[in-house]
Design goal:
α2 (57-77) packs antiparallel against α3 and α4 (164-178) crosses α5. β8 and β9 (256-260) form a beta hairpin. The strands form two sheets. This protein has a nine-stranded mixed beta sheet with strand order 3-4-1-2-5-7-8-9-10, sandwiched between helices. The protein has a two-stranded antiparallel sheet with strand order 6-11. The chain is 30% helix and 20% strand. The protein is built from eight helices and eleven strands. It has one domain. The chain is an alpha/beta fold.
Amino acid sequence: MRKRRNSISKAKSYKEIGEFWDTHDLDDYWEQTRPVEFEIDIQSEAVYPHKKKDSLLLKNHFDAVENQLLATSQVSANSGHTLHKGTPREAFIKTFLKKHLSEKLEIGTGEIIDCNSTSGQKRNQIDVVIYKREYPKLDFGGGISGFLAESVVATIEVKSKLTESEIKKAVNTAQTVKRLNQSFLGGGWSRGWEPPAILNFVVAYQGPAKMKTVHAWITRAYKSESIQYPVLEPSGSQRVKVASPALDAIFVLGKGFILFDNLPLSFITDQQRKTQPDLRWTITEISHGSLLMLFLILSQAIVGTWNRVFDPYRYVSGFQIDNLTYMP
């Protein structure tokens, strides 16, 4: 390869070009590109056998829903009016969440509080909060609610287009949520998977060409915020008990997903964990399947039975009444 064949990456070999574009997005360099003309001389052709269409109903269903969401986002993208910026988020809630989640759950937007939260304290507003219906919540007005940390199963940040800055914001929000204290009385039991903390997801309609780029963004965001990974045992049955330090999964519709390796549904084997203990993420490049994977994870997170008793008095541990009168 000639020296400096690629003017953007400044690479001197095809290997260096590949490594550069694994961690960078062409959208960030589009203004540096220029039109070129070239000819293609087809010397041969290859015929591939027809692959029978996947007949799994669940997968076909969510593939169709994923296509529907992508089409909806494209319609709103064609409009230049800011009124339509929230359309992808609303479509995601209406088309996917409300039509497919258990009736035990509700969907809201707002802040998550714990027993240590104070008035006027700066808190993140979450795009989508998935919480248990039987728990109380606070009404802050304007459609914004305050959700008790004990009631929240998962949060989802919905992005029209995923960028490195959006990933950094999502990481900061997820880290804050992970630090919340859930107040339960001691004891109790569970059957099935009980997430070790509130789950934090990102769902995007558009993103970089490769999911490896998203992983590189996560790595830089974690390093920038000095986020330390927890110690992960070489057994999947032990890893599911350990909370992620921030994000649990990122889904880019039509492109793929990234999973932190603490979920029951994992593509990493125990043998791989033993030989490569630093494996923490699974990166998947796939045109369909992101929505199905999110559905499966959420289903596992909510179908288990947890016998834990909420302790509301920790929210008012500093509350005192001076003038008390006792009567016989």
